[in-house]
Amino acid sequence: MQIQISLRAPNGQSRIQIDDESTLQELVELIKSKTELSNFTLKYGYPLRSLDISAPLLGTGIKDLNLRGETIVVAKLDAAPPAPTTQAASTQPTPKPFTPKGIEPDETSLEWPERGGYIGRSLLLRVMPDDNSCMFTAFGGAIGLENPSRILRDQVAEYILNHPDQYTDAILGDNPQRYTTRMRQMDTWGGAIELSILSDIYNLEISSIDVKSLRVDRFGEGKTNRVIILYSGIHYDRIAFCMDLSYPIEVDETRWATDDDAVLEKALELAQRLQRLHYYTDTTDFVIKCELCNWIGQGTKEAAQHERETGHSQFGELSIE
Fold first, then answer.
1. Coil/strand/helix, residue 238
2. Active site residue 278
3. 290 part of the active site
């Protein structure tokens, strides 16, 4: 059986397929071929954790690693470290991942000592899992919800059904009952309609920065506080501020006053660096495949039309070599 894995690497985002009977060695070789890198570290999961690709583990079957549907972040190492002796292994520090312009894609950050006056304080990108619930996870984590996708999907659905004059067939592009039934399913993407509703429910402005265009879409303008998320074409991540990169994600600052222009400017600076790394998918012409019926189309408009016609909502980007 084939499993799909998303890759985030210095040369952009992509998807790979590999047989679930393959070994970790075969996965590493496939990643080398896809990214054109020979020396790298791998991280996956949420929060991100290292995938050990040291020689003793390369024979491990990937079925045992539970990587189906995961996103693996590939961070380039600038030089292959020499093979350590047993003694050196306990004292030599782990090589620091390196990517263009010093940006680490797994936890991209900008130092911001001016905010609070301490060195080490940073505005950073918290990468969300690629599980079709990234928008709900990005926002829900910012307001401190556990299991945010389930909670927020139900709240959005109830809000739509309780406001029939506002959320009509014309606005939703479908019958409200069918629309909300799909939105409650964990594999359905959320977007602008859901962000607008969540802004009303939680009385927060949601500022969504588009990496490709650097446009800021503000949902709920005029509210007192905001959260900031980052949109990269088919994926949402969260913007956060932390006092030290070694601190756990639970102590992040993720809400700011809407008159705090400095944090939005800093977030745009971070988005500019991500744009230079091509940390986005161009949704106008990328090739997309339905995971349920193998339909293939182009761009999110065709995907939305396919979803309306069939009810299918599990899509993946199809790489054309």
1. strand
2. no
3. no
pLDDT tens, position by position, 219-266: 999 999 999 999 998 899 999 998 877 778 888 899 999 999 999 999
The catalytically annotated residue of 174, 200, 260, 312 is: 312
Catalytic residue (choose from 106, 235, 242, 290): 235
Is the Cα dihedral 134, 137, 139, 141 positive or negative? negative
For the chain, report the end-to-end CA distance as a whole number of angstroms.
Answer: 22
CB contact set of 232 (below 8 Å; sequence gap of 6+) = 13, 211, 212, 274, 279, 280, 281
Say if residues 31 and 24 touch (Cβ distance below 8 Å).
Answer: no
pLDDT in tens, 115-157: 875 667 889 999 898 888 999 999 999 999 988 999 999 999 9
Distance CA 247, CA 240 (A): 12
Total-model pTM: 0.61
- Is the predicted pLDDT of residue 91 greater than 70, yes or no? no
